[in-house]
Automatic annotation (TrEMBL):
Pfam families: Rce1-like (PF02517). The chain crosses the membrane at residues 20-41, 68-90, 111-131, 202-223, 235-253. This is CAAX protease self-immunity. The lineage of its organism: Bacteria, Bacillati, Actinomycetota, Actinomycetes, Micrococcales. One of its GO terms (biological process) is proteolysis. GO terms for molecular function: endopeptidase activity. It comes from Paraoerskovia marina. Residues 150-244 form the CAAX prenyl protease 2/Lysostaphin resistance protein A-like domain. Keywords: Hydrolase, Membrane, Protease, Transmembrane, Transmembrane helix. The keyword Transmembrane applies.
């Protein structure tokens, strides 16, 4: 009796399309819909967009350990769609290592590229945020609403990692694999991934949405390039670095410094 594994059954376009909508509907596609509704509400409000605020990582309870519990639960459950996406990819008969380059074989290079991508996005991104605030197309983004506890910084770091894993695995790695199954080309994927990334950031205003589209173009192009080699590791490192600096830096800066910088 042969011990060879049974070949994966080819999946129809309709099934792959349905799968994509389900995964996105449970994760960042859902966020995009809410963000579109949010920006419409902001633009039609009596208050000007530049005078509005949005808060990331808000506190969930006035009781510290209950707040910590809520924060950790939110981070854990947000990663469930990632587990689903990886499971569905593995069902095709390809390992996650082959599909997304998650194998830990090149940690030094992945980290190096991650720092380079973070630098390429971070400095222009901050400048674009300040410009957006100046011309009135960006709301004031408060990167952390958590009070100062012993667990605040670790939770903010975990939140940054959660964002990085969720977005890069689904919007880049998973989406590239599944759109390829549908016969989509490289630039169709880059456009779709980038516009999706921008759409779920619309709640921060038009400026951050445009900035995230640009970030999406860079990340998805790099992922499909001969340097990225279809590895999500560098993208996760870069995204996590950007969010750690934003979240922890915001929490660490004195209020008067934040006011002076307009953040």
């Amino acid at each position: 009796m042969s011990s060879d594994p049974t070949p994966a059954v080819p999946q129809s376009r309709r099934r792959v399309t349905a799968e994509i909508w389900i995964v996105l509907g449970l994760s960042l596609g859902q966020s995009a819909v809410y963000a579109v509704v949010n920006i419409v509400a902001r633009l039609t409000a009596d208050t000007a967009l530049a005078d509005q605020t949005t808060q990331l990582n808000p506190t969930r309870s006035v009781r510290p350990y209950l707040d910590l519990t809520y924060q950790l639960l939110g981070i854990a459950f947000a990663l469930v769609p990632v587990a689903l996406a990886l499971y569905l990819l593995s069902a095709r008969g390809r390992s996650v290592r082959d599909a997304l380059g998650i194998d830990g074989s090149r940690p030094g290079r992945d980290v190096g590229w991650g720092f380079a991508l973070a630098a390429a996005v971070g400095i222009p991104g901050l400048a674009f945020y300040v410009l957006g605030r100046a011309i009135g197309i960006t709301v004031e983004v408060q990167a952390s609403g958590l009070d100062a506890y012993w667990w605040t910084v670790p939770v903010l770091i975990l939140a940054a990692l959660k964002n990085a894993i969720l977005e890069e695995v689904i919007v880049v790695g998973y989406l590239r694999e599944r759109l390829t199954d549908l016969g989509w080309g490289r630039w169709q994927f880059i456009a779709t991934s980038s516009l999706l990334r921008g759409s779920y950031h619309l709640y921060q205003g038009i400026g951050p949405a445009i900035g995230n589209v640009a970030m999406g173009v860079l990340f998805s192009w790099f992922y499909t390039s001969r340097w990225g080699r279809h590895r999500v590791g560098p993208l996760i490192v870069a995204h996590a670095l950007l969010d750690v600096v934003a979240f922890v830096g915001y929490a660490a800066l004195p209020a008067e410094w934040r006011d002076a910088l307009g953040i």
